[in-house]
Design a protein that fits this description.
mainly beta; five-stranded antiparallel β-sheet; two-stranded antiparallel ribbon; about 5% helix; Kringle-like; signal; disulfide bond; Plasminogen; Kringle_CS
């Protein structure tokens, strides 16, 4: 699995994540975050360095690096979500938890994640620009709300949660789909689940994601920050049918978690019907032949190939008829074939950027 290999290699480079020594921070040993906006201090201990970060006024401090040997403290305006983490053996990186979460508490006034599209999929306008919409809320007028880049925020305490101005000239602003940190249920396959269930459906306690015992694995939180592998909570970082975790039992490597389905509406997507962007998860077109011309098998059928990628196991993935889809984070849409000798193949779906060329 490519994701597994990438996670393993990057995780090995960065080092392991240790326990949080400072409340409100996540620690990564042997790491350093690149930041143009930073300040250096000489301190007595890591607690003093945390205090420097909390008291920073020249920029919003999202993380700090502490070099114990030299008692150096570097506060930074960036973290692993927006900048590269590099190896630095003598350093420990501490990142403020609230800037790592991609979920919200309450109405999301404290949301500091990196979602940058509205609930309808429109790209957000940067808070510091005046086109196509002249904003009433800017980094200068509301400095405490971290109106960074074009990320969704809630500077006016909107009861419906974080929002942004949009890049659509005909639509000034719209809300964003930011999941609740406390909603202990799943939409679709639970890729966005951020709850705190940490026991599997068969009663096993989950292993912490930053731990390699009793099971060694490549799902390192530092290597996969967009997957929010926090604590030992059930997550779905790899396109599985639902959230899961490694277990603390040496005899049970991993297990699915039982988390009820949400009764609220799932996040909406902007369907792509003629071309794809990224890995094509939003493709909802009607191509039904593979790249070598083989006819696709219906997703609801189990012949000639039995499988688990069914509409029931993968809701929200558009597994209609026998159309090419990407329900499980493949590199592009694919399907099972109607030929017994070939189980599955990728499909040839044009890329939107190619389709836009003259």
């Amino acid at each position: 699995m490519d994701l597994y290999k990438a996670a393993f290699l990057l995780g090995a480079f960065i080092g392991s994540v240790g326990g949080t020594e400072i409340d409100g921070y996540t620690k990564t040993e042997g790491a350093w975050v690149l930041s143009l906006n930073k300040r250096q201090y000489m301190v007595n201990n890591v607690a003093d360095c945390a205090a420097k970060c909390d008291a920073e006024t020249s920029f919003t401090c999202k993380a700090f690096a502490y070099v114990e040997k030299d008692q150096e403290c570097w506060t930074a305006a960036t973290n692993s979500k927006t900048e590269l983490i590099v190896r630095k053996q003598s350093s420990a990186l501490y990142e403020k938890n609230k800037y790592l979460l991609e979920c919200m508490n309450g109405i999301g006034a404290d949301y500091r994640g990196t979602k940058d599209r509205t609930k309808t999929g429109t790209l957000c306008q940067r808070w510091d620009v005046k086109s196509p919409h002249r904003p009433n809320f800017t980094p200068q007028t509301h400095p405490l709300y971290d109106l960074d880049s074009n990320f969704c925020r809630n500077p006016d305490l909107d009861s419906q949660g974080p929002w942004c101005y949009t890049t659509d000239p005909d639509n000034r602003w719209d809300h964003c789909n930011v999941p609740s940190c406390t909603e202990n249920c799943i939409h679709c396959n639970g890729e966005d689940y951020r709850g705190n269930t940490s026991t599997t459906e068969n009663g096993f306690t989950c292993q912490h994601w930053e731990s390699q015992k009793p099971h060694n694995h490549g799902y390192n939180p530092s290597a996969l920050p967009e997957k929010y592998l926090e604590g030992n909570y059930c997550r779905n970082p790899d396109g599985s049918p639902r959230p899961w975790c490694f277990t603390t039992s040496p005899s049970k490597r991993w297990d699915f978690c039982f988390i009820p389905r949400c009764i609220s509406e799932p996040p909406t997507i902007v369907p792509e019907t003629t071309c794809i962007t990224g890995e094509g998860q939003a493709y909802r077109g009607t191509i039904a032949v593979t790249e070598t011309g083989k006819t696709c098998q219906s997703w609801s059928a189990q012949t000639p190939h039995g499988h688990s990628r069914t509409p029931e196991n993968y809701p929200c993935k558009g597994l209609d008829n026998n159309y090419c889809r990407n329900p499980d984070n493949e590199r592009k849409p694919w399907c099972y074939t109607t030929e017994s000798e070939t189980r599955w193949e990728h499909c040839t779906v044009p890329r939107c950027e190619d389709a836009a060329d003259p």
